[in-house]
Amino acid sequence: MTRLSSDLSPLIRVPSSSSSSEFKSDLQTKTNGGKNIVASSSPGLRSSGSIRKIMNTTSTTSQQQKQSAHQQSSIINNDNDDPFAKKYDNCIVGAGLSGSVIAEQYATNLGQTSLIIEKRHHIGGNCYDYVDADTNILVNLFGAHLFHTKHERVWEYVQKFAEWVPYEHKVLGKVNGKIVPIPVNIDTVNALFDLDIQTTEEMNVWLKKEQVEFKDDDGNTRAPLNSEEVALTRVGQRLYDLIFKPYTFKQWAKYPAELGPEVLSRIPVRNDRDGRYFSDPHQALPKGGYTSIFERMLDDPKITVVTNTDYFEVKDRLKCDRVYYTGPIDSYFADLGWPKLEYRSLSFERVVQEDTPGYFQQAAVVNHPQNVDAENGKEVDYTRIVEYKRMLNQTSDSTIYFIERSKDGGEPYYPVPNKENKDLYKRYQEMAEKEEGVTFVGRLANYKYFNMDDAILNALELFNEDTKDMAKRRG
Ligand code: FDA
């Protein structure tokens, strides 16, 4: 395991406290101090495991190299000093799930070569994780990643690259000073409204009374037109006001009425006591983390990976038969001078709490939908807190958690699905369709939120589609 020394990490150290309210006020002071730490400066680094060869290509002094060892440009699986000198069957922009699956499929099924260009210092895209050097806890750099799927093809595919540990994700929310299950279920409603609902039938009756129906001009029930209407049809006004409206505003800086119906339609509401966040048949975490999945996927001499390199800076030097582009579609067409597509991003404030063999909070993820903590009247400007120690049953004398805040600018995470963005994306999509020899793939190129399993399925199907003729020729 390679690690950087901990003094490289900007972090907030919090003394452990036996009293949670004492700690909460401490946290509040620290977070209000404005020390927002974006996790890209996090100190941990995973071992490069099965990767055959990593070469640094930037020229830095040995001291600089030591200080930013995990930010060096690397060539992976390449025997040639100049990866751009060679011709490849495929050039792939982005070493996230979409790009890595495409490269793996071409190598495994057709014996074709791929050059992957990645602008970040690491492979894995947003799924990248690493072992935090101060706590020895495996954490995600870009927010919690929980794998869940109903697609047998995807589940079968991911078995090749990891041992999977069953993990049913549970999320709690702090609402009106109470810790309640999210998504809303019988226990949430009982706790928040002082009820004693016991059965699914009783919950259905309660929900029915709360739910709002929308009618068209002819008096017929119509589908919700925006996310406010979605929430009202599913949970009614009271839960909407307590949870969905403030949380959505924190997350998107827009009220649900300003967002397309798809944003809140992903949030399930339960009529039983099921406290799981997802209901897919396969829910698991990779035992060795996500980064090691990518290391295995890309561990093929036919795949070359160059990190710390922006595609647009090396584009003219590339020699390949076809290109798969998994970056933002508007960056690809930047020369057109059209408006940029809007994204929401996140900041992750890293907090290490020493002398804590147990945990900081009651679940791996606790959501904070409200703007004020009803317990102490203090402002809550964050959306959720993630404590990774609770995933994969990790043990450590300390704990680490990340306080998430939503923001504009920064890494593009969530497309903002309003009418302007959808219309603008359509214009970019029309340009993409005309682009010869380039396939646009993945969440950024499609301006669409993909779960990991969607990204994998999409890439597998696209590979099949693109190679139908080649597979036939091979017989
Ligand atoms: P991804 O963004 O991972 O990869 C694209 C790559 O292209 C990036 O590495 C980028 O640096 C690179 N790139 C872009 N432009 C480039 C350029 N010009 N030159 C070179 N490289 C370039 N899913 C799930 O199933 N469960 C979960 O719990 C979560 N949680 C979650 C949390 C957060 C905060 C986010 C933002 C997302 C999730 N996801 C998730 C979704 C998951 O991250 C997503 O499905 C995959 O990352 C999609 O993989 P892609 O390869 O399409 O994009």
What does this structure look like?
By secondary structure, the chain is α/β, with parallel strands linked by helices. It has a domain of 82 residues. It is 30% helix and 19% strand. The chain has 14 helices and 20 strands. Strands 1, 10, 11, 15, 16, 17, 18 and 19 form an 8-stranded mixed sheet that branches. The protein has a 7-stranded mixed sheet with strand order 2-3-13-5-4-14-20, covered by helices on one side. The chain has a 3-stranded antiparallel sheet with strand order 8-12-9. A hairpin with a 6-residue loop joins strand 6 and strand 7. The site of dihydroflavine-adenine dinucleotide has 36 residues, from helix 3, helix 10 and helix 13.
Q: Can you summarize the main beta sheet?
A: 8 strands, mixed
- What is the percent of helical residues? 25-40%
Mean pLDDT: 85
Structural class: alpha/beta
* Backbone CA Rg: 24 Å
Bound molecules: dihydroflavine-adenine dinucleotide
> Based on CA inertia axes, which overall geometry fits?
globular
- Between the first and last Cα atoms, what is the distance in angstroms? 44 Å
Q: Beta-strand level of the residues, as a percent range?
A: 15-25%
Unreliable stretches covering 5 or more consecutive residues: 1-72
Number of helices: 14
Number of strands: 20
